[in-house]
UniProtKB/TrEMBL annotation, chain A:
Organism: Nezara viridula
Designated name of the protein: Ubiquitin-like modifier-activating enzyme 5
Biased composition (Low complexity): 14-25
InterPro entries: ThiF/MoeB/HesA (IPR045886), ThiF_NAD_FAD-bd (IPR000594), Ubiquitin-activating_enz (IPR035985)
GO biological processes: protein ufmylation
An annotated Gene Ontology molecular function: metal ion binding
A Gene Ontology term for the protein's cellular component: cytosol
UniProt cross-references to Gene3D superfamilies, sorted A to Z: NAD(P)-binding Rossmann-like Domain (3.40.50.720)
Family: Belongs to the ubiquitin-activating E1 family. UBA5 subfamily.
THIF-type NAD/FAD binding fold domain ranges (all copies): 41-291
Stretches the record annotates as Disordered: 1-25, 307-326
Keywords, alphabetical: ATP-binding, Metal-binding, Nucleotide-binding, Ubl conjugation pathway, Zinc
Automatic annotation (TrEMBL), chain B:
One Gene Ontology biological process: protein K69-linked ufmylation
Source organism of the structure: Nezara viridula
CDD domains according to UniProt: UBCc_UFC1 (cd11686)
Job of this protein: E2-like enzyme which forms an intermediate with UFM1 via a thioester linkage.
SUPFAM superfamilies in the cross-refs: UBC-like (SSF54495)
Similarity field: Belongs to the ubiquitin-conjugating enzyme family. UFC1 subfamily.
Name under which the protein is recorded: Ubiquitin-fold modifier-conjugating enzyme 1
Superkingdom field: Eukaryota
UniProt-listed InterPro entries: UBQ-conjugating_enzyme/RWD (IPR016135), Ufc1 (IPR014806)
Length: 389, 166
């Protein structure tokens, strides 16, 4: 065990710990030399013999990027590594803390390590066949976002090829929007996942740029707790979490990612989970033609063109009848008073029971004299003026 | 939100340009609007004897830092603040952080990012791209300080420091 920590300490000394390790390099991380054999995959290859998955071995050629390796992402990563994925790339800027110990995967001996380091060590010892690349960075920052974009485009299993899928396991809107715009730009299918801060509901959502609604097409969805929301007290706390809810969401996430990549079963475009009532709403979301993300609109045009040229794909499930079109859901430009929060939680009748928008957007005209008027001053003038205040 | 806060909010100029730091052409325009709006807000605060923060940014306007202060029982408590402009700005709001309070309150995310009310993000989302940094200060950091600082002082987590009285 101490050898693992020693390796980890050496790595922490470099600030930006981008460790790329092939299966051979990883031998030193393994405390007891594993006797590797095909037995590792025997139960997985049985899926093929049973006719459930026809091309299971394809998994060895796949590369998945996971952004956020906390309670959901770390478990999802472990599942993929145990499934024998070809390569995973992990992005996270956080470190392991005591408050994470109510979740799966990380252990007290990891406290103080960056999550990517701790995960890299554990995952490579579970399955040294998998190529694991880790990046300790916050992708929402201007300096790191370009690196993230480049990684999506060129860090697939074969260098210079894009990754096959992105799994978003982050806990905030900013990072989800950053992943969304990057995947729209690079045209990469991704899954969004989330567990509510009340720990009793969660969701996964598949986003195929141009085909299904992107994360910016409409205000975010929320799965209700299934109880009176007003009864949830938030004084003195930010977020609660349960290993059960997170484990369930990780399972749903990887299950649907595998179904999509290995083409078996029916992939859920959106799957909600209400823990208090064991209710699982599903739905399909179509993209918004007026989406604010320009790349989303480009992908929508490409998809339409492609659809016209190709016969319908029978492998893909047909959109269900209650598909939602968000023509009227343009992201708004309206000043709305905070004293009307109830409105934001009204049931949108086009959504299944238990799923709501986090807020609605009403388009009211804006008074021009409330707007800022830009004069002759240069940016430098303004910066000086602000400093002198 | 009380009538007084609404009045304060309505006096902060709204922004026009929807551009983030990756928009090479439009970002300088947005940044100018941010500064004009912030300057107006600070001037309003000074006029009403309610000046409560000082902010500046790097040249590119992508990283902001400064101080905020809060008066409690006639004593002034001062904190360093910082935040980055995310690549998805202004669709997503900046996440204001008070690093020195990291780990001292549950109403914070890692790195000292303040935990905003359930109202803030929907309100920001509805007002893209009109809300800017000044609005994030008025609707995000201001109310957070008003609720959390007295509580932290009462719990003894924050202690008054003489030299803070600048």
């Amino acid at each position: 065990m101490s050898s693992i920590l020693n390796v980890a300490e050496e790595e922490t000394s470099s600030n930006d710990s981008n460790t790329e390790s092939s299966s051979n390099d990883n031998v030193s991380y393994i405390p007891h030399k594993l006797v590797h054999s095909d037995q590792c995959y025997s139960r997985l290859m049985a899926l093929k013999r049973m006719g459930i998955v026809n091309n299971y071995e394809k998994i060895r050629k796949l590369c998945i990027t996971i952004v956020g390796i906390g309670g959901v992402g770390s478990v999802a990563a472990e599942m993929l590594v145990r499934c024998g994925i070809g390569k995973i790339i992990l992005f996270d800027y956080d470190q392991v803390e005591w408050s994470n110990m109510n979740r799966l995967f990380y252990q007290p001996r990891h406290i103080g390590l960056s999550k990517v380091e701790a995960a890299g060590l554990t995952l490579s010892s579970i399955n040294p066949d998998v190529i694991i690349e880790t990046h300790h960075m916050d992708i929402t920052k201007v300096e790191t976002y370009e690196f993230f974009l480049d990684s999506l485009e060129t860090s697939g299993l074969t260098f210079g090829h894009p990754v096959d899928m992105v799994l978003s396991c982050v806990d905030n809107f900013e990072a989800r929007m950053a992943i969304n715009s990057a995947c729209n730009e690079k045209n990469i299918t991704w899954f969004e996942s989330g567990v509510a801060e009340n720990a009793v509901s969660g969701h996964i959502q598949m986003i195929v740029p141009g085909k299904t609604a992107c994360f910016a097409c409409a205000p975010p969805l929320m799965v209700s707790a299934g109880i009176d929301e007003k009864s949830i007290k938030k004084e003195g706390v930010c977020a609660a979490s349960l290993p059960t809810t997170m484990g369930i969401i990780s399972g749903f996430l990887v299950q649907n990612a595998l179904k999509k990549l290995l083409q078996f079963g029916k992939v859920s475009d959106y799957l909600g989970y209400m823990a208090l009532t064991d209710f699982f709403p599903t739905m399909t979301l179509k993209p918004n033609p007026f989406c604010q993300d320009n790349y989303c609109k480009i992908r929508q045009d490409e998809y339409k063109l492609n659809e016209k040229q190709q016969p319908p794909d029978n492998c893909e499930p047909a959109p269900s009848e209650d598909s939602v079109v968000h023509d009227d859901n343009t992201w708004g430009i309206t000043l709305v008073s905070e004293s009307e929060p109830e409105k934001s939680h009204e049931q949108d009748l086009s959504l299944p029971t238990g799923i709501n928008r986090e807020f609605t957007v009403d388009s009211l005209p804006c008074n021009e004299d409330e707007e800022v008027s830009v004069g002759e001053e240069t940016l430098e003038d303004l910066q000086c003026k602000m400093k002198a205040l | 939100m009380g009538d007084e806060s609404k009045k304060t909010l309505s006096k902060i100029p709204l922004l026009k340009t929807k551009a983030g730091p990756r928009d090479k052409e439009l970002w300088p325009q947005r940044l100018k609007e941010e500064y004009i709006s912030l300057i107006q807000y600070v001037q309003n605060n000074k006029k009403t004897d309610n000046d409560w923060f000082k902010l500046e940014s790097n040249k590119e306007g992508t990283r902001w830092f400064g101080k905020c202060w809060f008066i409690h029982n006639l004593l002034k408590y001062e904190f360093d603040i910082e935040f980055d402009i995310p690549v998805t700005f202004p669709v997503t709001a900046p996440e204001i952080a008070i690093p020195e309070l990291d780990g001292k309150t549950a109403k914070m995310y890692r790195g000292g990012k303040i935990c905003l009310s359930d109202h803030f993000k929907p309100l920001w989302g509805k007002n893209v791209p009109k809300f800017g940094i000044a609005h994030a200060m008025a609707l995000g950091l201001g109310p957070w300080l008003a609720v959390e600082v007295p509580d932290l002082i009462e719990k003894g987590v924050i202690k008054y420091k003489e030299k803070e009285q600048s």
